[in-house]
Amino acid sequence: MDSTSAPRDWTFPQGFLWGAATSAYQVEGSPLADGAGQSIWHRFVHTPGLMRNGDTGDVACDHYRRFQSDVALMKSLGLNAYRFSVSWSRVLPQGVGAVNAAGLGFYERLVDALLLAGIEPTPTLYHWDLPAALEKEGGWTSHLMLRWFVRYVTLCAEEFGDKVKDWIVLNEPFGFTSLGYMLGRHAPGRIGLSNFLPAIHHAALAQAEGGRILRQLVKNAHIGTSFSCSEVVPHTNAPEDIQAAKRVDILMNRLFIEPALGRGYPREDFKFLERLELHNKSWKYTERMQFNFDFIGIQNYFPIVVRHNALIPFVQASEVKAVTRKVPHTAMGWEINPDSFYRLIKRFWLYGGVKEIIISESGAAFKDELINGVVNDQQRIDYFQQYLLALLRAKKEGVNIKGFFAWTLTDNFEWAEGYKARFGLIHVDFNTQLRTIKNSGYWFRDWLSGK
Fold first, then answer.
1. Between β-strands 401-407 and 370-371, what pairing exists: parallel, antiparallel or unpaired?
2. Which secondary structure element, helix H or strand E, spans residue 205, and what is its range?
3. pLDDT for the residue 107
């Protein structure tokens, strides 16, 4: 295949969403501007010793002040959709209570600019930046979480629902509950099952309740929620490796989608799940966790190969890294495997009850270099070609795939990785904020324009 252009028989229907995805804390900067409140990520990055190189999102990509020119860049790339997130603490500084009109105004201007450019706004309601004021009260571990979330979603639906029709409720609930409330690697930095279990349950309830509020308040809303997911492969055919893979699969792939589909939590011989059931046995929860989403967002960055490891609590499994296995991988050490991506799409479609799939994030970090005004990121072009061919294969086999969002529009603040990992279609010099479209961005532009 020609590495600089897409084959002409790539056929996607009119109305297919071609977009890029970002999140508020990762790109906006100005986290406390114009009356905004602190988020858990603002607190986390300003705690000494927690962040690589002391990186923060205080400036990030300065999208809060440069959104107009960023929208112009999106239009120049031929994108017809933009996935962004609303910062809860920007619109409700204390999480509940008084509304920050300036914060709402920012998102209203962003939505208007997108619509004027012919780009469909696709907001995510929660992309990991909980108001710090709510974390003080327990955050996602609190039984009050659902009440707080209802207040926030209602505000967004009422403010933006006349112009916004495509919505994503939560971004990767397994990601923020495990990394933030079990392992302590992400904000708010909590550790242990006593935090993880209630956070799981409240997130599962919130994703369904958020959907119900949008359905009630936004006419003709197209409602989804997104899941991080990875094909989990046993390292060997040994029974203990196979069982280890099943346990990891429950956590990474089944824990949140099955409740949303009305199946409740996965029921397997896994002591962790017994703890989850016991923790929530007093709840009439199965129906409350179910919602008939119009689409689900799939976010797959790598498959994971695991082996049994009795030293790891509860899951008793550890990863066999791509580097160790000597397979193609990104600068993050994540395996590149488009066939695995294809199998994962097919698997989620075959659940039944899934109406549409949108690839709400897909991308890769490489060691990009800006040389004489050019970023020749051929590896990223190859990556997208392989993964889009896998997507097209699944679509031709009957999977109802309605969109693809590249992660990400611009290089940004990549959570615990800080500014080291670059995923963008557009390079950002974080000292000057100069944007430079990478060759991968031009590749998308030329393909989407039919060149």
1. unpaired
2. helix 193-217
3. 99
pLDDT confidence of residue 279: 59
Residues in the chain, how many? Answer: 451
State the CB neighbour count (10 A cutoff) for residue 63.
24
Query: pTM of the prediction?
Result: 0.96
At 100, list the tokens. 């920050």
The span from the CA of 86 to the CA of 164, in Å, is 13
Q: Which of 405, 411, 403, 300 is nearest to 347 (CA)?
A: 300
Q: Which residues of the chain register pLDDT less than 50?
A: 1-4, 8, 282
Q: Cβ–Cβ contacts within 10 Å for residue 443, how many?
A: 23
The β-bridge relationship of strands 166-171 and 120-126 is: parallel
Structure tokens at 288: 């409350």
CA distance 90 to 144: 20
Query: What is the pLDDT, as a whole number, of residue 5?
Result: 53
Mean of the per-residue pLDDT values of the chain: 95
* Residues with a known catalytic role: 172, 361
**In b/e form, how buried is each residue of 123-160, taking b as 16+ CB within 10 angstroms?**
bbbbbbbbbbbbbeeebbbbeebbebbbebbebbbebb
